[in-house]
Amino acid sequence: MRLYTTDRGIAKQVDEDTLAVLDLPHADLGSLLTIDPYLSTIADAPVRETVPISEATLRAPIPRPSKVFCMSANYHSHLDDEVAGVLKMLNPEGGDDQIKALKSTPTFFGVPSSAVTGPNDSIKLPVIAPDQVDYEVEVAAVIGKGGRDIKPADAWDHIAGFTLSNDVSARDLQQQAMSAPFFELGHAKGLDTFKPLGPCLVTRDVFSQPFDIAIETKINGEIRQAARTTDMVHSVEASIAEISRYFTLNPGDVILTGSPSGVGFFQGKFLKPGDTIEMTAEGIGTLCNKVVG
Fold this sequence. Notes:
This protein is α+β, with helices and mostly antiparallel strands.
């Protein structure tokens, strides 16, 4: 199923152009997941109204997750072709060890849920760091059944579905963090509007294992990123299992699963006011946001 959080409530898509708004006592899918991790009530929920998608205001499927995690350098193309050079430059003696660590164990960081925004919402260049704001297309897994110490073999069953995200970053803040002895990326990647989610949540049953879909980024119509999720260094299941070693995962938690090569930093192409970002994932749809100063 393709499910939406809208200004009219929770809706499911009934055809290419139409949404059925459901008569449910929940304002958004995040609220529903907390009491119905398998979204089983959706199937029999009465329809309050049907509306054209164009007439509904789409919100982030999970507007305020309890936790948002992001996987670091989790595509071979991004790690080998881009990140490896930066790590070696910043740490000539230990860069190779850092690369090996990224390949051997899933690495992640957290950002505040206040960074989440929705489809068609504006990405705001922050006053504190407006000059090197960058994009990264990422498929995001949304947790259904919560848990701790989840085994990789069981992790797929803990996923409610998938949505799309843009892992927006202030690269100058990120470089400052990565130059420190112990860097953390939350400041650079967790600013307001820096984690758009959408356009919908597609339930897990639509996809198969191994997880293999195409993803793409266009900036003002120019293709900047294009890859398949099979290029991930660590699978979605491995990432969920690793995070759950440290933190209890709750229904509605969001995990961004990494981004391929083609980010703006390595092309010297940063986001500027007026840019239109279109990110597409096969089977999920297109997440569109404009950049404002």
